[in-house]
Amino acid sequence: MKFGTKAIHAGIQPDPSTGAIMTPIFQTSTYVQKSPGDHLGYEYSRTHNPTRTALQNNLAALENGKYGLCFSSGLGAIDAIIKLLNPGDEVISTNDLYGGSYRIFTKVFERYGIKFHFISMEDPKTIEKYVNQSTKLIWAETPTNPMMNIIDIEEIGKVAKKHHLLFAVDNTFATPFLQNPLDLGADIVMHSVTKYLGGHSDVVMGALIVNDDQLAEKLAFIQNACGATPGPQDCFLVLRGIKTLHIRMERHCQNGKEIAHFLKAHPKVDKVYWPGFEDHPNHDIAKKQMRDFGGMISFVIKGNKVEDAKRVLENLHYFSLAESLGGVESLSGHPASMTHASIPKEEREKVGLVDSLIRLSVGIEDVEDLKADLEAALEKV
Ligand SMILES: *Cc1c(COP(=O)(O)O)cnc(C)c1O
């Protein structure tokens, strides 16, 4: 089955009791048993819910995986992965990552005796310098947020295999439409479903996709035992959103490309970060592992003044200033004070995340209106 067909059909059956083509919202906490243990596979909705099952199977198919597991947020999904570890274990992570991931690693799990090394993985060989007997997991995000660096998934997969480490990839920015980390050697794919997969800025949800039976069993145990599961209404909304994922992503990529080139040619703009540029430092890897380059762009205004960045953000009209990304509507953000405020300034600046950096999530509106919006806001500086 090809991607667009999977988005609409994979894991989804008409409802057997009515023939309803849309997966019903099974708004129930529990299921009646004929006699103790005699039931139809459903006992309690934290453990299993048919709407969630349909979504989990659909997500697994989109990532070429065997098992999908949904959580009540992306961070709930990340939490479940780290709960596979024990005190004393070590994790090697990309140093340019979602601020909330950095926060749960350092502010929550370090207290439980898990150690995190944040490193640049642009040269995968550097990872080996940090591997020791306690290392259990490699955590990578690509494209990275918000600097749009590209990490070579296949090369890191080789390092992980060699040292028998689990390898998890946060695939939120790329989505399964652009890249499939399991095919490149990752063990776990993580998504903030809140973003492109949901796609309509109306749900907060997370997901994990894996192939290994035992790993799936351990994660399903944590999903049920710790309980960060989404409700059926949210699962329905995401199932609905995913039906147009391929079409939305095509337009996000098309608009992203136009906006990236527009900004790069703009006299008031200094640096533009987007992996589709031929002079992007990891463009070749992006071309190798991604089908297109997506709609996430970061840029810095000439002079690198925070006030100028603020003025642009205040004057954008269609690019609403808001946390999050990946919805049909364009959004703008100021990572230093918003999504990445929980990362210390010195750490942020090491990766180029300066205080005047603006991040755009290019939506699927008419691109001419988006360009005019940026032009008008840039005129104010
Ligand atoms: C938003 C986001 C998360 C966290 O997901 P939530 O659904 O907000 O909990 C993790 N990683 C990336 C890259 C994100 O953009």
Task: Provide the fold topology.
Layout: H1 3-9, H2 50-62, E1 67-71, H3 74-82, E2 90-94, H4 99-108, E3 115-119, E4 135-141, H5 153-162, E5 166-170, H6 175-178, E6 188-192, E7 206-210, H7 213-226, H8 232-242, H9 245-264, E8 269-273, H10 283-289, E9 296-301, H11 306-315, E10 320-321, E11 331-333, H12 345-350, E12 358-361, H13 367-378
Parallel strand pairs: 2-3, 2-4, 4-5, 5-6, 10-11
Antiparallel strand pairs: 1-7, 6-7, 8-9, 9-12, 11-12
Helix pairs in contact: 1-2, 2-8, 3-4, 11-13
| CATH class division of the largest domain | Alpha Beta
- Percent strand equals 5-15%
Number of domains: 2
CATH superfamily of the largest domain: Type I PLP-dependent aspartate aminotransferase-like (Major domain)
**Alpha carbon gap, first and last residue:** 50 Å
Tell me the CATH topology of the largest domain: Aspartate Aminotransferase, domain 2
Sum up the overall morphology in one term. globular
Biggest β-sheet strands, sense, barrel:
7 strands, mixed
- Sheet/helix structural class: alpha/beta
- CATH architecture of the largest domain, please? 3-Layer(aba) Sandwich
Figure out the total of helices.
13
Cofactors, ions, other ligands: pyridoxal-5'-phosphate
| Largest sheet, spatial ordering of strands | 1-7-6-5-4-2-3
How many β-strands, per DSSP?
Answer: 12
Q: What level of helicity do the residues show?
A: 25-40%
Give the overall pLDDT as a whole number. Answer: 96
Roughly how many Å is the radius of gyration? 21 Å
SSE series: HHEHEHEEHEHEEHHHEHEHEEHEH
Low-confidence stretches: none
